[in-house]
Predict the structure of Dipeptidase.
Amino acid sequence: MEEIKKYIEDNKQRFLDELFELLRFPSVSADPKYKSDVLKTADYVAQKLKDAGADSVEVCQTAGYPIVFGEKIIDPSLPTVLVYGHYDVQPADPLELWKTPPFEPTIRDGKIYARGACDDKGQFYMHVKAFELMSQTGTLTCNIKFMIEGEEEVGSANLGIFVKENAEKLKADIVLISDTSMISMENPSIETGLRGLAYMEVEVTGPNRDLHSGVYGGAVANPATILCKMIASLHDENNHVTIPGFYDKVLELSDEEKTALNSAPYDEEEYKADLSIDEVWGEKGYSTTERTGTRPTLEVNGIWSGYTGEGAKTVLPSKANAKISMRLVPNQSSEEISAMFTKHFESIAPKYVKVKVTAHHGGEPVVTPTDSIAYQAAEKAIEESFGKKAIPTRGGGSIPIVALFEDVLGIKSVLLGFGLDSDALHSPNEKYDLYNYYKGIETLPLFHKYFAELSK
Amino acid sequence: MEEIKKYIEDNKQRFLDELFELLRFPSVSADPKYKSDVLKTADYVAQKLKDAGADSVEVCQTAGYPIVFGEKIIDPSLPTVLVYGHYDVQPADPLELWKTPPFEPTIRDGKIYARGACDDKGQFYMHVKAFELMSQTGTLTCNIKFMIEGEEEVGSANLGIFVKENAEKLKADIVLISDTSMISMENPSIETGLRGLAYMEVEVTGPNRDLHSGVYGGAVANPATILCKMIASLHDENNHVTIPGFYDKVLELSDEEKTALNSAPYDEEEYKADLSIDEVWGEKGYSTTERTGTRPTLEVNGIWSGYTGEGAKTVLPSKANAKISMRLVPNQSSEEISAMFTKHFESIAPKYVKVKVTAHHGGEPVVTPTDSIAYQAAEKAIEESFGKKAIPTRGGGSIPIVALFEDVLGIKSVLLGFGLDSDALHSPNEKYDLYNYYKGIETLPLFHKYFAELSK
């Protein structure tokens, strides 16, 4: 432990400079205009894995963005840890809301502000540095493999194919992922579940051209109005999703599970104050912790129609569009739910309009075991570095790869994340605390140590 | 009449070239980035009035865009016609839907395609050329004044002030306006009413920043979803507007009025085919003609929230916005209705969000008399040039100035428009038929002739 702390102390500034360099690449996978930047990012990650001591480092081409692979096999008889992360980031807009440029990392009161600071560059890079630390100090206790992809924020479309085709190369005993949050540094926690995702795009078409709202208004259905009515109908008065069959496969938690889940620290006043809202919202009969962790949801991620510029334009628009995504919980299938949504949305379209529904990426929900050697290793590592027991929580986010790994490779995952819900992932002014970054680099070698010990 | 036709024939090409020059100015009043173009347009109009023979031509400055004034007083004892028009145009977007550039007028099968071709450059310029024709052929029978403004498409905010301050200068016996449509060239018509307008912009704010839809989805109200629910509630199941008091002052038509109104040619199959819609929409219990001409309406002109770019972004947006306008009918007041809307919209906002409502420009509805000398002069002019009686109709659009003129100057208006509903006003590929342009130039001198005769 002292050795770990010393190495980090001696290399503190370099660890930060390297992360900053990584954060300066605008590796936005959703927007084609950043293609060359995303590719440069992959090369940078590969170079850093080599520098840290990895062998057979490869930038593996796919139909989309490449996957960076690297490994260090010290002894085939020892357990192998497969580290997964992603070097792509969410779009940065709305840009005007950033205090400092999203791709010019800036430190303000102990926090690194940049797109990807926490999700996931800051977090996966902790593993690269922890690996360097173990190699340099000769304290590697497990074999290690890295698989850092560039399409997580757009649904990891090509990762499944890659994993199927490289099952042998990816063989490991556990997948270790840092792409989730803790309750706080005072209340370290480990996520034991993730929600799945179904992401849809809808287009409602009324007249074949934009019309003068005076000449035609009142006589021709307005697709924006119709889309609003359709979206409004997707939640009932108790905020349950109205898509037939949506909840059919959802498991209700046992009272014990509910109690355990709700025992996690949660201060509603703080929660509301942080978001400047007067009231929380959600499905009647469930707590905020249950709503975000254990219940499926439906959210409008974007909507647009008609004139959205300066001033006034009296137009009756021809089209109205929306992006609508659903978070899924165990037993729900992304494909089934996407099909249900499509069928339902088409069925509620009035005869005045035409509706087109297309599915973006999806991902399956997962629950990770808490009785495994790997989970125990994570618990011990946290207890040693934080001096506190970790609280198991259910995360609201989605990491499609976790389910994929179980299905294709039969390997479980441990979600050892060091972010915070307040890190503003996917929002302007995303940040990652310096403390968390270094704390992660300190904790990860302990995971490897205990995972090796417990595997004996 | 022969003299008129000959003069038009001899100057056909020049009349068109001058209009094209006028149409090339992107005089979009709603968008500040076109400011210098709008100003250049005013100067061009002033020059053309001088060329046509107008005296004391002025580009009158206002707090906004200037108003171009010019006149020709041949004999103070003769009646005076005040021509009103506007040189500003609607924004041209969505640009990608234009077959040819909006500010590069192009002729396709006998039609001029350009933003403003019909609304209102093509129409007011007919008056300038008709005036030139009368001056050149020494057939002026009335004094004439021109007032061409540059803010009609943004609500004529400064025109009211100008009119009040220049009542003496604007003194006239009738206001003549060509900014409306006819049923068709086979069914010439004169609009005898216009709807008023109340244009609102709303902003719904949820959390203080965009959020990760996985981490917060299901526990925090989504302003896009809430805005959709609020907009959905503005029309009931029979498509009546639900704002309390909205219809209180609306007059129901008498059976006679209904019969007269519905006797105007209307082919629903043609109407639907032109717009590629399967069904017309609107208030239960009213015909399309009644819905657009005699009933107030509420339309979403624009809506935007969250991520609207390429691909998928799992964001729970902080804000959702919409532009919503209402067309008003006689007895409704733009100010009253704006206040009603604001009060109602704020009242239906759930406690999870904050709502801001702001009013853009408004305009009052009007009905023009059909028993006046001016209306009869218009009827006779049309009968002579079209060889057919004009059908009185109710227009769905709004020209705020008409009500303003009655209030401030006590002058009635005649709406002698030569456009067609199919001219795609406010839409991509706006057009104006060459036939209508020349037909207007031919008809207007006849109006002056009969107005003078009937005024004796």
